[in-house]
Amino acid sequence: MTIYEQILAKIKQYDTIIIHGHVRPDGDCIGSQLGLREALRLNFPNKKVYAVGEMASYVKFLGEVDVIEDNVYDNALAICVDCGNSERLLDQRFKLAKEIIKIDHHIPVDNYGDIEWVCEEKPSCTQMIYEFLTNANLKLNKDAAICLYTGLVTDTGRFRFDSVTSETFICAAELLKYGVDIAKIDGYLSIESLDVIKFKGYVLSHFKLTKSGFAYIKVTKEIVEKYGISYEDAANQVNVISTIPGYPVWALIIEYPAEIRVRLRSRGPDVDKLANAYKGGGHAKASGCKLADWSELTKFVKEANKLVKEYKKAL
Ligand code: AMP
Q1: Neighbours of 114 (CB within 10 A)
Q2: Smallest CA separation from ligand 1 atom 10, residue
Q3: Which whole-number Å values give the CA distances from 118 to 68, 73, 79, 245, in the listed order?
Q4: Going by CA atoms, what residue is nearest to atom 15 of ligand 1?
Q5: What is the pLDDT of residues 282-300, one digit of tens each?
Q6: How close is the Cα of 275 to the center of ligand 1, in Å?
Q7: pLDDT tens for each residue of 50-95
């Protein structure tokens, strides 16, 4: 049986299917959850299909997540999307489901699914959802296509990352046939408040550079509060410092009320191992991790600097 047949067989077997995503969901996570929910509802109108968790404000236009009671998990199938480690799944009730399917494109941290389909090389999880739906001969509609396309554009940095292949464009092209309005989606995704623009100015005037080529910006909670923006909007400015020649690794390190989160990016060395050393993970060129407190920043910066230094030496 192919992986598509295995997943389809499990979906057919269960009357209740609950789709989970990760903490602080992004466009790909929400696009995968809501796109799969829509497609499954379309193809299996008699099944109860839910997507749980929370919305990311910048993709609110895709719809809403469902709020369900614990007992809905009795005899349910959980499909967990876009998450490499079980600890990062937003609603830990996925463990209450009878069986779990993992569909993901991150470097695996742990194996939490009864069936696991992991393709690290895929640029977005929505591309995997699209591939599953087409290979399983399931129908799609405009709403599902909008969700899947949004995941595709957001996780590929608008089709710019090196994980993008001809398959990605074929996927986008096929989705457009359902009537996806790409200009409208781009409009939703590109809009920025005046406060966010001012915060970008803060990032541009306060980032630091290390000797060997690591650029970073430290954002305390006081700064987030001062600019009156959400933590999510502040964290999303990581790529403001992505284009500096000679600085192939960069990070935005932000203090949330309960944790210090590092958003780490690269167009040079792989950064996932560095993220692993700080309770994190992700992709080779885009990872995330955590600092125990601000005093750990100096060590982290030193290690990031060393990583770039070794990378440049090997060139
Ligand atoms: P982010 O900077 O949050 O966009 O994360 C970049 C990539 O790393 C995403 O694909 C995340 O899913 C992943 N990631 C972020 N934080 C963590 C973490 N603490 N543990 C594992 N993966 C993470």
Answers
A1: 15
A2: 282
A3: 27, 24, 13, 34
A4: 288
A5: 999 999 999 999 999 999 9
A6: 9
A7: 999 999 999 999 999 999 999 999 999 999 999 999 999 999 999 9
Of 82, 100, 87, nearest in space to 283 by CA? 82
What are residue 118's DSSP bridge partners? 104
Check: CB of residue 253 under 8 Å from CB of residue 261. Answer: yes
CB of residue 281 inside a 6 A radius of ligand 1:
yes
Query: Would you state the pLDDT for residue 78?
Result: 98
* Residue of 287, 289, 291, 300 with the most ligand 1 atoms within 8 Å of its CB, for mutation: 287
Q: How far is CA 5 from CA 2, 9, 26, 50, 170, in A?
A: 5, 6, 28, 21, 22
Token pair for residue 93?
């009730």
- Is residue 285 in contact with ligand 1, taking CB distance under 6 Å? no
Our answer on whether the CB atom of 287 is closer than 6 Å to any ligand 1 atom is yes
Strand 214-219 relative to strand 208-209, pairing: antiparallel
pTM metric for this prediction: 0.92
Q: Three-state SS for 122?
A: coil
